[in-house]
Amino acid sequence: MTGFLIAFEGGDASGKTTQARRISELIGAVFTREPGGTEVGESLRELLLSPEIPLAFRTEALLMAASRAQLVEEVIRPNLETGRHVVSDRFLASSIVYQGYATGLPVDEVRGLSIFATNGLLPDLTILIDLPVELSIRRRTDMPDRFESEAIEFHEKVREGYLSLAENSPERWAVIDGSGSLDEVSSLVDEAVVNHLGLSLNEPRS
Ligand code: TYD
Which domains can be identified in the chain, with CATH numbers? Predict the structure, then answer.
């Protein structure tokens, strides 16, 4: 008996973190995030998100993969093996899309690097909270990190990259319109989890 691994993906300010936390609580899953989620991962996160630290694109891809490898080994795999579900706020599709499609590193090489990092583990379901780039930029409130500081074209490539990954594997991806209210998006997420994984959900506590 193994648990399910559910990854949430989307552009910046798509609301995916709120949704990932909510569903994680509802299904009693372990919640984690990338980059980060372990001691070494959180240190790597500092480096990766600080716009003032210079990072070559390949270094960036390797550090993302290093954070992922540690997270899989230390948190994700052991929990799945005991039957717990795991919800991750971002997973390997983030690397394929940000370091591959948007930054311009070869997409297949970035995918290969990530699969090396996870030792072949893939999410059972990836939920894409999709939002037009204009809207996600308008929703932003805090200081921009390394990736948020990128030009609008970068974010357009991120969005297109996600949509094409989802289109290629519809059985493992759910694309959700993130422009609705919190409640509207929440019910779409619930529906995706029920339909794709056959999980039954308890009534959300109010
Ligand atoms: P975070 O503050 O978690 O952003 P968000 O709330 O949008 O998820 O920052 C994570 C940033 O790191 C985000 O801009 C995407 C980027 N990222 C990559 O470029 N590659 C990766 O593999 C991962 C996991 C994240």
Answer: 5-197 (3.40.50.300)
